[in-house]
Design a protein that fits this description.
The complex is a heterodimer of chains A (286) and B (219). Chain A has 286 residues and is mostly helical. Chain A has a two-stranded antiparallel sheet with strand order 1-2. In chain A, strand 1 and strand 2 form a beta hairpin. In chain A, helix 1 runs antiparallel to helix 8 and helix 9 packs across helix 10. Chain A starts with a helix and ends with a helix. In chain B, the strands form 2 sheets. Chain B has a 6-stranded mixed beta sheet with strand order 5-6-7-3-8-9, with helices on both faces. Chain B has a 3-stranded antiparallel beta sheet with strand order 2-1-4, covered by helices on one side. Chain B is globular. Chain B is α/β, with parallel strands linked by helices and 219 residues long. Classes of the chains: A mainly alpha (286), B alpha/beta (219). At the A-B interface, helix 6 and helix 7 of A face helix 2 of B.
Chain lengths: 286, 219
């Protein structure tokens, strides 16, 4: 029973990290209509930056904040490449984000090499109801909860957040009232970078990060985001938690080499179900 | 004041507005009539700065607000939020002046805009446009899909704003009776070209205009 609880709590922590990346995907997609395949790169950039900054002797806190800001900048630059030119279609932008992801490999290898890097996190562990959980895992869960609460506040209570929601809700109407939809899209990309960056600095102490870790991260995050139809961050959070728990359980009970397949399988099942639902709904409304 | 000179707007190779010249004087209320596909909404969007002309010029004295065709609200946001975002350009966030003018909006403030009736949504679109404190207002199909009573109510508010605040209004309508009731002058746009213009009373007597837009001559 305690093993089950350990896997469950660890799985929730893994799911939280996935949820942060997925929420970035959802934020960008809601505002711009673009599926950002460079989203995993932001986490990698932040993870590698943290590793370097801590290695250079910068203190904890400052290193992580600087790394998250670097990821936000990477998000903004990706946004400029993807939607900076007026009239770029979401499909073209998607291709650009794929290109940015590949280009990022080259930059990351030049700057950090191709070997995985780690960073020290919170040491120690705590016992909850007989289950031992690493303190870093608890930190991941806590930071994710706080981040989602801040996101809810930002989108639900602030003028800027509502303007972003307005762009997602009706881009034409947003332009009618004078909102610069492209600038809001860039803000969404920066926010996506920030969210990916938070995930990156939280995950790096738990698992080494290298230039190509983005593949695993984006597959998991995309599966969770698809669960929320790429538009609903809370549903994406639920999907990410389910995915994290499923993967951790699989690893704990001896199927560790199949974690990515679980994410891919879940993603395909959800996409098939959603596609068939959409077809049924459109047939009913016709 | 709205001053459009020799305006050409194209979508790729298709010309939507073909050398259109039109003026609405300060404090004037002018109608633009025309069938579907004439280019009326293209003109509205160009005046609002959403489309770039291929040639010609658009000059607007002061700030212009657009009430777009089909209301175009933010359906997921509340009425209060829709109004607040209307003040994006002006920096005005407090909708109390709009509530004073349209008290029904105060009652609807907390409701999601997407669940309101057509008339209520048009009222929100009207209030949202006023939040930008415009000097000129372009209303694209005020009456579209609304019951006559609701249209009359909104038209009365529009006329009152024009009278009391000197608001310049370009009313784009298919409902020529409403347009002729409210406005002093009108233009008729067909296939991207202005085909006639003049005093509403004179246009109402024009057999071609009366036949096309009034279902026969007004008696």
């Amino acid at each position: 029973m305690s093993a089950f609880l350990t896997y469950l709590l660890n799985g929730l922590a893994v799911g939280c990290a996935i949820a942060l990346i997925a929420s970035g995907l959802v934020t960008i997609h809601r505002v711009t209509g673009v599926v950002n395949f460079a989203q995993g790169t932001f986490a990698v950039v932040a993870g590698l930056c943290t590793s370097s900054l801590l290695g250079l002797g910068f203190p904890h806190g400052l290193s992580e904040v600087a790394a998250v800001l670097a990821a936000a900048l990477a998000g903004l630059l990706t946004g400029l490449a993807a939607i900076g030119r007026p009239g770029t279609t979401p499909l073209s932008s998607l291709i650009v984000t794929l290109g940015v992801g590949v280009l990022a490999y080259a930059v990351e290898i030049v700057l950090w090499g191709d070997q995985p890097r780690s960073a020290p996190g919170l040491a120690g562990s705590v016992v909850i109801a007989g289950a031992r959980i690493q303190t870093q895992h608890l930190l991941v869960i806590g930071v994710t909860a706080a981040t989602f609460a801040l996101l809810a506040f930002f989108f639900g209570r602030t003028y800027l957040g509502k303007a972003l929601t307005a762009c997602a809700s009706n881009p034409y109407a947003a332009r009618v009232v004078g909102i610069d939809v492209r600038r809001m899209g860039l803000l969404a990309f920066a926010l996506g970078g920030l969210l990916g960056g938070i995930a990156g600095v939280l995950v790096t102490p738990l698992r080494p990060i290298s230039f190509d870790t983005d593949v695993t991260l984006i597959v998991n995050a995309f599966a969770a985001a698809v669960f929320g139809a790429l538009t609903r961050p809370v549903i994406a959070l639920v999907g990410a938690l389910l995915l994290g728990v499923a993967e951790t359980m699989a690893a704990g009970y001896g199927y560790g080499s199949h974690q990515l397949e679980i994410a891919l399988g879940l993603m395909i099942v959800v996409m098939i179900v959603q596609a068939s639902r959409r077809t049924t709904l459109s047939q009913e409304s016709a | 004041m709205i001053d459009v000179q020799d305006l050409v707007v194209s979508y790729g190779t298709a010309t939507a507005l073909d050398h259109v010249t039109l003026t609405v004087g300060k404090g004037e209320m002018v109608a633009l009539l025309g069938p579907n596909g004439a280019g009326k909404s293209t003109l509205a969007n160009t005046l609002a700065g959403l489309l770039r002309p291929a040639s010609g010029s658009v000059r607007i004295d002061g700030r212009l607000a657009l009430i777009p065709e089909g209301r175009q609200l933010f359906p997921d946001l509340s009425v209060a939020d829709n109004l607040a975002l209307g003040g994006w350009r002006s920096g005005r966030r407090d909708p109390s002046a709009v509530y004073e003018l349209l008290p029904r909006l105060a009652e609807l403030a907390g409701r999601r805009a997407g669940v309101l009736s057509g008339g209520e949504q048009q009222m929100v679109a009207f209030g949202r446009a006023l939040m930008s404190e415009p000097d000129a207002l372009v209303v694209d199909e005020l009456s579209l899909g609304l019951a006559p009573g609701v249209t009359a109510d909104l038209a009365a508010h529009l006329a009152e704003l024009n009278r009391s605040r000197g608001l310049t209004v370009l009313l784009i309508e298919q409902n020529a009776r409403l347009a002729f009731d409210l406005c002093s002058r009108a233009y008729v746009l067909e296939s991207g070209r202005l085909v006639t213009e003049g005093e509403c009373a004179r246009l109402a007597d024009d057999p071609r205009v009366a036949g096309a837009y009034l279902g026969g001559a007004i008696t």
